[in-house]
Design brief:
The protein has 299 residues and is an all-alpha fold. It has 2 domains: 133 residues, Helix-hairpin-Helix base-excision DNA repair enzymes (C-terminal) (Endonuclease Iii, domain 2); 101 residues, Endonuclease III, domain 1. 47% of the residues lie in helices and 0% in strands. It is globular, with a radius of gyration of 21 Å. The chain binds iron/sulfur cluster. Its EC number is 4.2.99.18. InterPro entries: DNA_glycosylase (IPR011257), Endonuclease-III-like_CS2 (IPR004036), Endonuclease3_FeS-loop_motif (IPR003651), Endouclease-III_FeS-bd_BS (IPR004035), HhH-GPD_domain (IPR003265), HhH_base_excis_C (IPR023170), HhH_motif (IPR000445), Nth (IPR005759).
């Protein structure tokens, strides 16, 4: 296929250009075309970009048919709380924290009435626990007072809750309400820039640019697949290019380890033979469940 990168004999990929003119506007497109020209990168048409992006999505779907949210939750309220807690920490750490939290505060009303110091102590392992406790108390009170104790199923309502931005709102909408949404977290942003789907840095602009490449029905699963790949293979530092199924479609091949043997050792979670992040993974997850936290000494 002419619009995908072609692997050279030396293992490097020929590069394709950044996002299409229509997605980014005249000024951005001109800037990128000049920059691409200066780097000897072949421009990629809008049609070619859409085709390549969708092909990457299909490859990822084959690679991660079990892709799922990596936070344990049973309902929209739990997912909302877990997503707020997941800022600046791993989903695994959140999953080890939330069972006790949800047992003590099963509803927004219970959480709204929590003693701040007790709540802080329970969520301390997730970091930034004072700010997160403030957000949780604030959002629980708004849910109780303004939304009848229910998590609203609309983006415009969710983003009015303390500590809830578009990313959190899209996670909740996509996974608790079945409303398609693109979740731009640090992994998603990094990977779509490596794939040159966009060169935007601002999460909202990334969301718009990627939304433009895919039908709405794909948005939620695409988000899971891209984040799965970022966590397992295409790491921020030392991506495992030599063990990456997306390599033939990736203009950034070679940014990480290309030796297959060494690259395989960089794979994480179930791809590297380890456990996943969820204590209660879905039935089709091929790896092991994460282990619960060790009991505290004396506890
Ligand atoms: S691991 Fe390497 S080849 Fe694979 S998507 Fe990331 S940068 Fe591209």
């Amino acid at each position: 296929m002419p619009d995908t990168p072609v692997r050279r004999q030396d293992g490097a990929a020929t590069r394709v250009s950044g996002p299409p003119d229509s997605a980014v506007g005249e000024r951005g497109a001109g800037r990128r075309a000049r920059a691409a020209g200066a780097r000897g990168i072949k421009p990629e048409s809008r049609t070619a970009l859409v085709r390549r992006a969708r092909r990457i999505n299909r490859e990822l779907a084959g690679l991660y048919p079990y892709a799922h949210p990596e936070l344990d939750f049973d309902n929209a309220f739990q997912l909302l709380v877990a997503t707020v807690l997941s800022a600046q920490t791993t989903d695994l750490r959140v999953n080890r924290t939330t069972p006790a939290l949800f047992a003590k505060y099963p509803t927004p009303e219970d959480l709204a009435a929590a003693v701040p110091e007790e709540l802080e102590e329970m969520i301390r392992p997730t970091g930034f626990f004072r700010a997160k406790a403030r957000s949780l108390l604030g959002l629980a009170r708004v849910l109780r007072d303004d939304f009848g104790g229910e998590v609203p199923g609309r983006l415009e309502d969710l983003v009015t809750l303390p500590g809830v931005g578009r990313k959190t709102a899209n996670v909740v909408l996509g996974n608790a309400f079945g409303v398609p949404g693109i979740t731009v977290d640090t992994h998603f942003g990094r990977l779509v820039r490596r794939w040159r789907w966009t060169d935007e840095e601002d999460p909202e602009k990334v969301e718009r640019a990627v939304a433009d490449l895919f039908p709405k029905a794909e948005w939620t699963m695409l988000s899971h697949r891209v984040i799965f790949h970022g966590r397992r293979v295409c790491h921020a530092r030392r991506p495992a290019c030599g063990a990456c199924a997306i390599a033939p479609l990736c203009p950034s091949y070679g940014e990480g380890e290309t030796d297959p043997e060494k690259a395989r050792k960089l794979l994480k979670y179930e791809m590297g033979g380890g456990a996943g992040q969820r204590l209660r993974p879905p039935a089709d997850f091929p790896g092991r469940a994460a282990s619960p936290p060790a009991p505290r000494e004396g506890g």
